Amino acid sequence: xxxxxxxxxxxxxxxxxxxxxxxxxxxxxxxxxxxxxxxxxxxxxxxxxxxxxxxxxxxxxxxxxxxxxxxxxxxxxxxxxxxxxxxxxxxxxxxxxxxxxxxxxxxxxxxxxxxxxxxxxxxxxxxxxxxxxxxxxxxxxxxxxxxxxxxxxxxxxxxxxxxxxxxxxxxxxxxxxxxxxxxxxxxxxxxxxxxxxxxxxxxxxxxxxxxxxxxxxxxxxxxxxxxxxxxxxxxxxxxxxxxxxxxxxxxxxxxxxxxxxxxxxxxxxxxxxxxxxxxxxxxxxxxxxxxx
Length: 292
Hints:
Layout: H1 10-23, H2 30-37, H3 44-49, H4 57-66, H5 71-85, H6 89-105, H7 113-120, H8 122-131, H9 140-149, H10 156-168, E1 172-174, E2 180-182, H11 194-215, H12 232-254, H13 276-286
Antiparallel strand pairs: 1-2
Helix pairs in contact: 4-5, 5-6, 7-11, 8-10, 9-10
């Protein structure tokens, strides 16, 4: 089985533990874990693995003891649980950095900091897009020129670091004439750990959208909103429409051979209330529903 420090999802790790114990003929039933954890529920482990229940710091530590983790493994498992269960992006960022430190201590490089940095700094994708629009060399003049084109402004030093990262990630390369070229027109994000970096990126672009209300005139921006009452079934239909629209926009942009400016397009849909039906069920279960 892989070392625990190679996992970024504690539930995936636990599933592998159970599989490994079965192969080795070791006890691994729900009842056995519940007994060892001193929890009066034989379905506890299943609920945890399905994401219906989480782990507290104390239960995570007890589980580490049962699985005979070393001190460093126990620390990693506790941090991994906190990372997976963090409710805010700020919390996830803090625990992410802890996981990176613990992995480096164990000589493992799984969380891919370079790609994390790509998505955590909004202007890097802008730098990359602009580099595909004009002849760009690694010179102070071009670094400063590109920096002056970005809204809101960034520095030449930030552009220089962005270019170095893009080259390291093989998203750009130098051609025979000494100019940088894009390695491909489109970038697709990876799963798991990058989801945090993408959340950071989305948070930043939403902040920029707010600032755009003051920064650009109406003819230079479009920000539409709609507050609607719909069912979950209709939500899924709308979500599919938005995904299709996003893919279509990307196709149109990739075919544009006259691109001369970078735009940020955000497509969002999120709940603004709790479900009426689920609220009724919750109220009935708690015995608080008004019979009228």
